[in-house]
Amino acid sequence: MAGGGGKRRPGGEGQQCENTVDVKKSKSCEADVSSDLRQEVENHYKLSLPEDFYHFWKFCEELDPEKPADSLSTSLGLRLVGPYDILAGKHKMKKKSANLNFNLHWRFYYDPPEFQTIIIGDNKTQFHMGYFRDSPDELPVYVGTNEAKKNCIIVQSGDNVFAAVKLFLMKKLKEVTDKKKTSLLKNIDEKLTEAARELGYSLEQRTMKIKQRDKKVVTKTFHGAGLVVPVDKNDVGYRELPETDGNVFLM
């Protein structure tokens, strides 16, 4: 499946964190990714990426220094894409890259504008993970997953990439019966869990941050993520449609 194009229809240097149990201290550390590379990512996407995005890249580099984007391919069937392609240097060799709309890069058929794909999985179901933002001017509120071949539902999967991959991994462990495969998954799980602990990232599916955000949702949406649209001082904001969800769905 190609990485570019439109939506698919269903069919300075950062400092390395020291190993420490001090969660507040470790989470405040920046991943060892150059400021130039960070700026390149943001220039292409016009969006700010959270620090867990870069920390997860460094984690994958430890798993496979030569091909970090494919480090989870054999064990989990996952591949890092989207803005990770820039960290992998995939666009430097293509002269036409400057003319691309990177916000269409790795978008699937049901993805709303708020969703930014960063990891893909099974092509048969078009499984993918991505950051969900309530506003393009803010950092993501959580990582969501979707299987575009099945439906448009976005499933909340933690507030960072480590949590989302951990949840996916645990589901895989329940499905696998082969001992060799199970051993491989458990090894990845141990490394991922330890990395998240040292960096101070929660591995919960619904953190306090996500629960607080959900309280601000003004209406449910077909994809399940909901809308957070505050009313401003001029009384401008979200207003309910004079139609039922069923009628809107048929439009």
From TrEMBL:
The molecular function GO annotations come to: histone binding; poly-ADP-D-ribose binding
Return the annotated region ranges for Disordered: 1-25
Q: Per the UniProt entry, what is one GO biological process?
A: DNA damage response
Q: Is Nucleus among the key words of this record?
A: yes
Q: Which Pfam family, any one of them, does this sequence belong to?
A: HPF1
What InterPro entries does the entry give?
Answer: HPF1 (IPR019361)
What's one GO-annotated cellular component?
chromosome
**Keyword Nucleus annotated:** yes
Q: Superkingdom of this entry's organism?
A: Eukaryota
Location in or out of the cell: Chromosome; Nucleus
Q: Which keywords label this protein?
A: Chromosome, Nucleus
Which family is this sequence assigned to? Answer: Belongs to the HPF1 family.
Q: What is this protein called?
A: Upf0609 protein c4orf27 homolog
> What is the phylogenetic placement of the source species in the record?
Eukaryota, Metazoa, Chordata, Craniata, Vertebrata
